[in-house]
Design goal:
By secondary structure, the protein is mainly β. It folds into five domains: 2-121, Sandwich (Immunoglobulin-like), CATH 2.60.40; 133-237, Immunoglobulins (Immunoglobulin-like), CATH 2.60.40.10; 240-336, Immunoglobulin-like (Sandwich); 341-619, CalX-beta domain (Immunoglobulin-like, Sandwich), CATH 2.60.40; 624-735, CalX-beta domain (Immunoglobulin-like). Helices cover 5% and strands 51% of the residues. It is built from four helices and 60 strands. The strands form 13 sheets. Strands 29, 30, 31, 33, 35, 36 and 37 form a seven-stranded mixed beta sheet that branches. It is elongated.
Length: 740
């Protein structure tokens, strides 16, 4: 009977081990009961409370007496109860746990040894995200679960996505996915990993189009032998109303500062580019341009407009942008700038002694707004000689009577942009004063410069040139002044003497201050001499490039460089110098260069006259044959093949950008992103380019349909001197791909 009981007990002890969850997060593991260790480990999750149990023996206390339990790890005793509790299992809890059971059955001692291998499952974990942190370099973003944040169009810098694994079995492998695709880095981004932390740096996010390429889903995936975990953060564009900045990028004369708005000036026929820059705004707003109150439809949706400045195009240009969240308008005024003009209306005036006509001089000084103190200084009581007042003009030269010593030379300059004025004179030592007044006459600046030589002698004879400049260019005008000399000569009929006046100098100047030429033809620059000279006058004409370039745009007859040697034969009062404007077949604005006279005659009697510098303007004629057209009249595109690329061709290259608007017309295809993206489409030929493609996006709609068509047409509202060529329109055929 005893043997039967012992056999039953042994049979119960060899029952297979079981594992149960009691519903409170406690895992109960019943020890294997048998003669050998259990080779299959029991697996629990990290953090579980585990109970190892030898309780099956307790049910047989009536048969087995004096039962004792001993739990060991190796030779270390860790418990003496029937159950061993492991609170919050960790990876370090992975051990082989042995349960020794001692008892007595019918006075016979019984010892059983049981063991259990415990394995703790510890997949990686990623904590919830922290709020983004703004740094000097950009943003620090902690990757979270289905988290999102947005950036606006003004953001510039680096976004640092950080993924931190806070727990789990090591080693842990971290990889990045961008929009679901495994990402290992590129020229725009870099991945940095240190232990269980990995950072994805999206570097160089800038405003505008670069932001769009970075609006994606960034996923961190952490994997170890026990499992994996993913966390995703989506980078979005913040929805905001539009904010814009308007300004002119190509202009010679800004008349006021500031970006939102501002006034700018340019020369006649000069091209000005006005930019409407979107600083912020999402969804992307629509752009419209207005001249005064009229919409410039050819520039719709274009961020820039290109204007040839003439009397008909000056005025207020406005850029209006609008999206669902608001709108904003900014304006710039484009004005026509002129070179400074030097007034030649004042006649040579002779004043008798001050006691008689001093009020006339005072009235003249009042007209140019000199102060009372300046007038008193100019008309001091010690002025007793006759006074000469002259203005710089194109009369060439003037001779001061021998008995005059006080000379006033006026230069009155007009300009839309305030001119600066200075003088080029013979050596004067300290024998002069030079007051200047600045006034406004409507929108025109009036600058009056007075050169007063208080003791004019023959040493002061020469050319007095008034030089004026503003951002539009330079202008010079002068007058040659000599003083009569009283020389004693013998009379042929007697031995008495008398006084005569003799002229000693010959003034050489340009016949006027401005000359012009037309591309492909020859023109002349005229020189004048104040009086016939008994000898040949030699001089050099020196050209200085402004916008025109020697040899590329103009060439002098008999010379291949910028210096032209000239000989004016004895007795001649005028002489012409020929030049040719090079026909370069390039569309370009009016160009110019400057000419200056350099006297090379050995005679000291040859001096520069009033106009020793002149500006030469070169008129382009290539634009009158320039046209824009499509390179073919039809284009075919499969629906899923991406955008169609029509190509525009310019018949002549240009020295400035040419902007063209292309419009669409629906046929069987529907615009508005149903079958294709509607226009208008803005196409710009960069400087020198004659072939430019542009994209029209095609929508792959997954709908079985017939072949569809639409037409693209060049808008006839083209820049100055550009016409529409043939073909001016092209038909686009979209072939369906959904029935394949």
């Amino acid at each position: 009977m005893k043997r039967l009981l012992i056999a039953c007990l042994v049979l119960l002890l060899v029952l297979s081990a079981t594992q149960a969850q009691d519903g409170t997060g406690v895992v109960r593991i019943f020890s294997y009961t048998g003669t050998s260790d259990d080779l299959q480990p029991m697996v629990v999750n990290e953090g579980d409370t585990v109970v190892l149990d030898c309780e099956p023996y307790a049910e047989f206390e009536g048969f087995v007496r004096n039962i004792q339990y001993v739990w060991q790890i190796g030779s270390v005793r860790v418990g003496t109860m029937a159950t061993l509790t492991i609170d919050r299992a960790e990876i370090s809890s992975e051990q082989t746990y042995q349960c020794l059971i001692r008892g007595v059955i019918s006075k016979n001692p019984v010892i059983r040894r049981r063991s259990r291998n415990l394995m703790v499952r510890a997949p990686p974990t990623i904590p919830p995200p922290l709020p983004p942190i703004i740094t000097d370099d950009g943003l620090e973003v902690t990757i979270g679960y289905n988290d999102t944040f947005c950036i606006n169009n003004t953001f510039m810098g680096t976004v640092n996505f950080t993924c931190v694994v806070v727990s789990g079995r090591t080693p842990v492998t971290i990889e990045w996915l961008v929009d679901g695709e495994v990402f290992t880095g590129d020229s725009h981004s870099v991945i940095i990993s240190v232990n269980e932390t990995a950072s994805l740096l999206v570097i160089g996010i800038d405003n505008g189009a670069t932001v769009e390429q970075d609006l994606k889903n960034y996923t961190c995936q952490a994997t170890n032998r026990d499992g994996n975990v993913t966390a995703t953060t989506s980078l979005l564009r913040c929805e905001t109303g539009p904010v814009i900045d308007i300004g002119v990028t190509e202009f010679p004369c800004p008349t006021s500062s500031g970006n939102i708005g501002g006034n700018y000036s340019a020369l006649m026929d000069q091209f000005v580019i006005i930019n409407c820059t979107l600083i912020d705004g999402f969804p992307l707003p629509n752009i419209s341009w207005f001249y005064m109150d009229d919409e410039l439809t050819m520039f719709r949706e274009s961020p820039t407009i290109n204007i040839a400045v003439t009397n008909d195009t000056i005025g207020l240009y406005s850029c209006n942008v609008v999206n669902e969240l608001g709108n904003e308008t900014a304006s710039s005024y484009v004005d026509l700038q002129i070179l400074p003009m030097i007034n030649a209306s004042l006649e040579l005036m002779e004043f008798f002694p001050r006691v008689n006509l001093s009020m006339d001089l005072i009235d003249l000084l009042d007209e140019v707004n000199f102060s009372t103190e300046m007038i008193d200084m100019l008309l001091a009581d010690n002025v007793t000689d006759e006074v000469y007042v002259v203005s710089v003009d194109e009369s060439g030269s003037v001779e001061i009577p021998y008995n005059v010593s006080n000379v006033f030379i006026f230069c009155v300059v007009y300009g839309r942009e305030e001119p600066s004025v200075n003088w080029t004179t013979p050596p004067l030592d300290d024998n002069y004063i030079n007051p200047v007044s600045v006034n406004m006459m409507g929108l025109v600046y009036v600058v009056t410069s007075l050169l007063n030589i208080t003791n004019f002698t023959t040493d002061h004879a020469g050319t007095y040139q008034c030089n004026a400049s503003n951002c539009a260019g330079n202008m010079s005008q002068g007058i040659g002044i000599t003083k009569q000399v009283l020389l004693p000569v013998a009379h042929p009929d007697c031995k008495k003497s008398k006084s005569v006046f003799v002229h000693l100098v010959y003034f050489v100047s340009f016949s006027r201050g401005e000359f012009s030429g037309i591309e492909g033809s020859s023109s002349t620059i005229s020189l004048t001499v104040s009086q016939p000279a008994p000898f040949d006058i030699t001089l050099t004409l020196q050209s200085t490039d402004i916008t025109a370039k020697i040899r590329d745009d103009y060439i002098f007859s008999g010379s291949n460089n910028s210096n032209v040697s000239v000989i004016i034969p004895a007795g001649d009062l005028s002489h012409d110098v020929s030049f040719t404007v090079v026909d370069d077949n390039i569309l370009e604005p009016v160009e110019s260069f400057e000419m200056n006279i350099i006297i090379t005659s050995t005679s000291t009697d040859v001096l520069l006259g009033g106009t020793s510098a002149a500006t030469v303007s070169l008129q382009d004629r290539d634009g009158f044959g320039t046209s824009v057209r499509f390179n073919q009249s039809t284009y075919n595109i499969n629906e899923g093949a991406g955008p169609v690329q029509p190509v525009l061709v310019l018949s002549n290259s240009a020295s400035f950008p040419i902007t063209v608007q292309v419009r669409d017309t629906q046929n069987t295809a529907t615009g508005g992103r149903v079958d294709y993206d509607s226009g208008p489409y803005t196409v710009t030929f960069p400087t020198g380019d004659t072939i430019v493609p542009f994209n029209v996006p095609i929508n792959d709609d997954n709908i079985l349909e017939n072949t569809e068509m639409f037409t693209v047409t060049i808008d006839p509202s083209l820049p100055s001197r550009v016409t529409v060529g043939n073909p001016d329109q092209s038909t686009v055929t979209i072939m369906d791909n959904d029935g394949e």
